[in-house]
Amino acid sequence: MTGDDTARFLVDDAARVAAIAAEVTRAGIFAFDLEFVSEDRYIPELALLQVAWGDPSAPELAAIDPLAVDVRPLLELVADPAIEVVAHAARQDLGLIATVFGLSGRRLIDTQIASAFAGLADQIGYARMAQKLFGAAIDKGHQHTDWKRRPLSEAQLRYALDDVRHLLAAWKLLEGQLAARGRVDWAREESDRLARSAAQRRTPEEAYRAVGGWAGLRPGQLAALRELAAWREREAVGSNTPPSWIATDPVLLEIARRGPGDQRELGRVRGVQSGLVRKYGEALLAALGGAAGQSLAADAPPPLGPRAQAQAAMVSAILQARAGEADIPARLVGARADAEALVAAFEGSGNGAGPLMEGWRHELAGRDALAWLRGEVALAADPGAAGGVRLLRIGGDP
Predict the structure, then answer these.
(1) CATH 3.40.980.10, applies to 3-199
(2) Are 198 and 181 in contact (CB under 8 A)?
(3) What is the pLDDT of residues 337-372, one digit of tens each?
């Protein structure tokens, strides 16, 4: 790539952004990737948007500079249900787009997810995927570069464009492999689930749930923590500062427990430094004042009893067995929490509920797990089976 190439691929004017958006819309599919700066920030700052469209074997490429031009016309295409969007390990990128631009992915295909369903590898990196699929060698030397510094070097631009250069071809190849195994819909469903999850951001009023130990507080203390955590969340977003830099979780918990009435008492709370009192003392006390007289009951689900815990372990074994038979990561099928949710729902209603009862998970493993809970099948050890166990119909064949 020469200096002239740099000028051709780097886009910093609105007319060219509009033209690319029109070309992508006509194509109906494109790939994207973001470069951003996250160090010392709560919300990463977008520094470059790369896109690829057209012929998967020789795509059109562009790197749009968000420091020079509005990139929203292209990012809006990520949320266009008429356009298929290809990305790799896109959770962070989609989270940034949702937080900063208020846009959510609608027809996403994540090639990391598709690779897992195709049996390539679990959580495979983009460079490794390209190497395994095409034998392509991608230089990752600029992975930790300062993407906000201008001008961008030719090496930086080459690295950035390589991050989208192979995505359309990768999806075309993976789609064929998945179609042969009846799993294209699985990849689409899981990619859509990722897009929805990445777009969800907790409200300030829900921020207390991310503070470790909140469920152990008394109702009045929990109400205080809710107000304190909501204040910290707003302060973090407003100043784009990591919340722990403002006040750590243990400090918020201790303030909520002690409920100091003035700055002198606040300064005596364990873990509270004088700098915190000077900078945020009034705000912290105001948050506590807002919680005065309130109570909030912890709504965390009660722990499962010994019988249900044992059942959840067996459900997890079924999930692992079915994952092994399908040659996909057990992590994708379901976690221990999903098994526990299924058991809890069954205890409450005699029916299943939760992720294991939805979509491809139900098809692969959820219905078998529910059948076991209902006593319709038995779980037997089988060293020769892919998952080490097999299900036997009660009074019948496997």
Answers:
(1) no
(2) no
(3) 999 999 999 998 888 889 999 999 999 999 999 999
User: Could you check whether 3-199 and 204-290 share the same CATH topology?
Assistant: no
Tokens 């205080």 found at:
224
* CA distance linking residue 74 with residue 31, whole number of Å: 11
The pLDDT of residue 395 is 65
CA distances in angstroms from 82 to 2, 273, 349, 391, listed in the order given: 36, 54, 40, 42
Rounded CA-CA distance 65/69 in Å is: 6
What sign does the dihedral 248-250-251-256 (CA atoms) show?
positive
Interior/surface letters 244-273, b for 16+ CB within 10 angstroms, e for the rest = eebbebebbbebbbbebeeeeebeebeebe
Which amino acid is it at 75?
L
- In angstroms, the CA 244 to CA 247 distance is 5
CA-nearest of 298, 280, 296 to 231 is 280
CB 37 within 8 A of CB 143: no
Residues 71 and 24: beta-carbon distance below 8 Å: no
CA–CA separation, 224 vs 219, rounded Å? 9
Q: How high does pLDDT run on average in the chain? A: 93
The encoded tokens of residue 269 equal: 């709370």
Rounded-to-integer distance, Cα 206 and Cα 226, Å: 7
Q: Structural domain boundaries of the chain?
A: 3-199, 204-290, 306-393
Domain 204-290 adopts which CATH fold? DNA polymerase; domain 1 (1.10.150)
pLDDT score, position 7? 59
Share of the chain above pLDDT 70, in %: 96
Residues in a beta bridge with 36: 46
Strand partners, 327: none
DSSP 32: E
Residue 54's region, left for phi above 0, alpha for psi from -120 to 50, else beta, is: left
Task: Determine contact, residues 74/21, Cβ cutoff 8 Å.
Answer: yes
Cβ–Cβ < 8 Å for 207, 71:
no
Contact 89, 110 (CB under 8 A): yes
The phi and psi torsions of 210 (rounded to 5 degrees) equal: -90, 0
**pTM score, two decimals?**
0.91
Tell me how far the alpha carbon of residue 308 is from its chain's centroid: 29
Determine the topology of domain 306-393 in CATH: DNA polymerase; domain 1 (1.10.150)
